[in-house]
Amino acid sequence: PGDESGQDFFETGFTVRELGPQAVRLWLGLQVVSLVFQLLLWNEVSGHLWEFEEVISVECAPSRLSHGVCTGPLWNLTSFQDITVSAKPGGSVPSLRAWEFSTFSRPPTFLVAVNPESAARVSAGKGDPAPLPSDFGTQAHELKDERWSLEVVRTDPPQSGPSMHRYHSGPEALTFEDQSNEATRALELR
């Protein structure tokens, strides 16, 4: 009880002090300067986002899409393969599959996208996929956990080191870029 102006709050070291008009003006000035810099930052970020959206709308226009992939002046779609790998009867692991392709980009670059699908959608064969089963919501959740592996081996020029092997589950997109000296020399000779 009595005068508590000299005591701190909850023993934190903070005490009530009287501020003069000069300190209040300084604090308000700092807040205004801070607000101006925040508006400048927002303006710059908005401009970059608008430029990005413009590039995407031009580069990913319907006339520039190839199998759902945006192709622009620096990217092309040299090869596209939509492949279904089914499990053997009884749900055992599918056999190994190999795909060969060439890339002419410098450095050699390619993209692999894996999207597991429901067995019921694939069972229709070469025509349109079968309609979605009634329990597709449950299957779609299970497909997120579907495991698969990918092994990448360079064949031209022959790979001198071990192959690259990755294990993943569910949908995934992987980009590969070969920056080896062998690949650079092979491209220079073409």
Question: Summed up, what is this model?
Answer:
With about 190 residues, this protein is α+β, with helices and mostly antiparallel strands. The protein has helices at about 20-60, 120, 135-145, 180-190; strands at about 65, 70, 110-115, 145-150, 165-170, 170-175. Helices cover about 30% and strands about 15% of the residues.
Number of helices: 4
* Topology, number of strands: 6
The residue ranges in which pLDDT falls below 50 over 5 or more consecutive positions are 126-130
Mean pLDDT, as a whole number? 76
The biggest beta sheet, please? 2 strands, antiparallel
So what's the overall shape? elongated
Description:
By secondary structure, the protein is of the alpha+beta class. Helices cover 32% and strands 15% of the residues. The protein is built from 4 helices and 6 strands, in the order H-E-E-E-H-H-E-E-E-H. It has helices at 21-59, 119-122, 136-143, 181-189, and strands at residues 65-66, 69-70, 109-114, 147-152, 164-169, 172-177. The strands form 3 sheets. A two-stranded antiparallel sheet has the order 1-2. Strands 3-6 form a two-stranded antiparallel ribbon. Strand 1 and strand 2 (69-70) form a beta hairpin. The chain starts with 20 loop residues before the first helix and ends with a helix. Mean pLDDT is 76; it is low at 126-130.
